[in-house]
Amino acid sequence: MEHLYPKVVNFQENEFDKVKDVYKQLENSQSPKTLVVSCADSRVLPNQFSQAGPGEIFSIRNAGNLIPAYSEGEVSNEALTLEYGVEALEVKEIVICGHSKCGAMGGVLDFQNLSSLPLVQKGLSGIHSVFQQEFKAAPELSELIEWNVRKQMENVLSYPFVKKRVEAGQLSVWGWVWDFVDGKISYKISSKDLANS
Ligand SMILES: [Zn+2]
């Protein structure tokens, strides 16, 4: 049983004509202004809730909207995508977009019970140890989600090519939390606010 393909056929037959010209214009290049780092969660649709169309958002997605801190000589898919977005595409803003009810952040709170998901547990161990250092008592999930957004902003800012452009006023870094039930950004912080906090 195929779930997604019939929807693709429907799009081809009924919707593609409406956006065909836009894609034609984008055939040989893209110049998105925004890089969004968001969670893999199926309820988080940055293009839908920002009404951004083709060519407007360059994306990094993974469980927990995580970016590893810069480490010279080490590469991850997140790091290479970040470098390409900033240095080659010259995006003007980076948005770390967390979201309400994030399962990955729930996993950080309930870390010991992740033993049946060894890869998830290992993958979240970095942010979990930072969490343990910074929280004496377990926070509410919503508080942890906002904290994680700030941590990932710090990680993004640890890349020299990001820092240089932010300092030159060519790039801004934002943290958002998207509340998908209420349909609003429930938390928003800029890197300037972060530096002053
Ligand atoms: Zn999530």
Description:
The chain is of the alpha/beta class. It has a domain of about 140 residues: Beta-carbonic Anhydrase, Chain A (3-Layer(aba) Sandwich). Helices cover about 45% and strands about 15% of the residues. The protein is built from nine helices and five strands; from the N terminus they run ααβαβαβααααββα. Strands 2-1-3-4-5 form a five-stranded mixed sheet. Strand 1, helix 3 and strand 2 form a beta-alpha-beta unit. Helix 5 crosses helix 6. The radius of gyration is 18 Å and the shape is globular. The chain starts with a helix and ends with a helix. The model has no long low-confidence stretch (mean pLDDT about 95). Zinc ion binds next to helix 5.
State mean pLDDT (0 to 100 scale): 97
Shape by Cα distribution? globular
CATH hierarchy class name of one domain: Alpha Beta
CATH architecture of one domain: 3-Layer(aba) Sandwich
Strand order of the largest sheet: 2-1-3-4-5
CATH superfamily of one domain: Carbonic anhydrase
**Helix and strand run:** HHEHEHEHHHHEEH
CATH topology of one domain: Beta-carbonic Anhydrase, Chain A
Strand content: 15-25%
Amino-to-carboxy terminus distance: 51 Å
Tally of DSSP β-strands: 5
Counting DSSP H or I runs of 4 or more residues, the number of helices is 9
Bound compounds, each kind once, are: zinc ion
Task: Return residue spans where pLDDT drops below 50 for at least 5 consecutive residues.
Answer: none
Largest sheet report = 5 strands, mixed
Approximate helicity band: 40-55%
User: Structural class of the secondary elements?
Assistant: alpha/beta
Global Rg: 18 Å
